[in-house]
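My hope is that you will study the protein record below before we discuss the fold together.
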Amino acid sequence: MQEKGTISVSTENIFPIIKKFLYSDHEIFLRELVANAMDASQKLKRLAAIGEYQGEVGELKVQVSIDEEAGTITVSDAGIGMTAEDIKKYINQVAFSGATEFIEQYKDSDQGDSKEIIGHFGMGFYSAFMVADKVKIVSLSHKEGAEAAQWECEGSTEFEISPGEKKERGTDIVLQVAEDSKEFLNKARLRGILDKYCKFLPITIELDGEQINNTTPIWTKSPSELKDEDYLAFFKELYPMSPDPLFWIHLNVDYPFNLTGVLYFPKITNNFDLYKDKIQLYSRQVFITDEVKDVVPEFLMLLRGVIDSPDIPLNVSRSYLQSDANVKKINGYVTRKVADKLEELFKKERTAFEEKWESVGFFVKYGILSDEKFYDKAKNICLLKNSEGKYFTLDEYREHIQAAQTDKNENVVYLYSNDPDKQDAYISSARKQNYDVLLLDNQMIDSHFVGSLESKIPNSSFKRVDADTMDKLIDTGTEKESVLSEEEATKIKEVFEKTLNNNALNLQVEALPTDELPVVITVPEFMRRAQEMAKTSGMMGLGEFPSALTVSINGNHSIIQKILKAEEAAQKALVLQAYDLALLSQNLLSGANLTKFIERSVEMVGK
């Protein structure tokens, strides 16, 4: 029998639409054809399982082969196969879903798993015309007494069906590759596509006789079957250049949506590449994308691993992911599983949890910043680390500092450092007064985290340890006695104003402890926060040298007494030296001013 006809479509421009708009990336053609071949194989297994196919199933595999000389790519399977009538029904009626009909027909059977049927043998097949001038199908149905059929089409709505020359059950799709797509006749190119999209399909895939896929990835197995080394080996399979992860979460849910997978917590550094080694999204072991922003909460985008859900179709759009109800449920489920895992680790192995906090803390802080519900789950396992290296939960730390660090307004003041090396003098000053200092020195996130905590913890205030003098950072309402008279305080301020000659400086004389510096320079808290936020947001203008500094002259220090008694020339040298020392303690002294300070120091030492 030979027949000619016209493909049933609503427009004769279907092929340009397929080529230019339906699939944005031409390499998708191979994923679609392999998915269809897998579909045909799974259908045969299904029919055999329910007794509707009595023949020998044999070895089911998908074979991809290249003939560079002939300019063809062939995708072959030993699956269910098609008769001429099947081809007319499933191929010529574009967008008719053979898989959908099949699942509907056998949905009430209690054997096999209809979720294993991957695709829609119709529109996906036509992706072949993105790279081919001509496509041929040769197929032999599994049905008893069936005859082989051949279908040919040259990229128009016209096709031809004729008897085929196939002796074994299954289907061969032969693509005559177009001149502008010759790149796909390269074996390495096809191997790359298969590695990307088909690396974990459940039936063997061969490229020119070489198996390229792992048919049983660990997310398809029960956690009881797996050991730590299995999870680590799979991580290396996904990300061969990355260090071992901290720990992982095995996902497995079948209601109210279907989802499996494994998520890994990687080690995080301040310079972590946000766009490297993303989570991979699969549908029935077929790779879809690694752009999972709407599937996974934003703060967990730095996790690694695999999520597989048959409820997400192969060809997804951003708008689909944003609006689909199942995707939103998956998002919430992943958040809950991560929170539960963190709580479990904290309760069972707190010491180990603390050791991992540098990396884990990034996720927790990011989650607290971006998801109010996550804060409720994570607040009991969120840790704060002080300058002595001790860890506290939020409640533990408040109890630790409450007695010593409550100000006159009944606010508990949390002192912190974002650069303990540069702020060592200020940390030391805080310790002298029995104050505790937190380390919040992750430049990527902690400036935002501080503001978030301050809004969430009642009666609290977060202040950087070098933002003011200690007495003002924690104002208990008790004033220290000054050794200077009002007249002397006025005089020393005038000497500093005349010598420094800088109207941008906020000069003030204070009664500070005698073991503090003679001059203390601080950046007002509001300006410092603005600078930090601007820096992390990429707004460099605000992050530069501050336009205003507070200069606190320690009236109780012996050097201030010495300045008052010195001659004018000596006064000037001492004022400049004390001021430069204060700048140096804030890492604000550089260039010519630093050179002058060194020269002046040498001169003073030599006297």
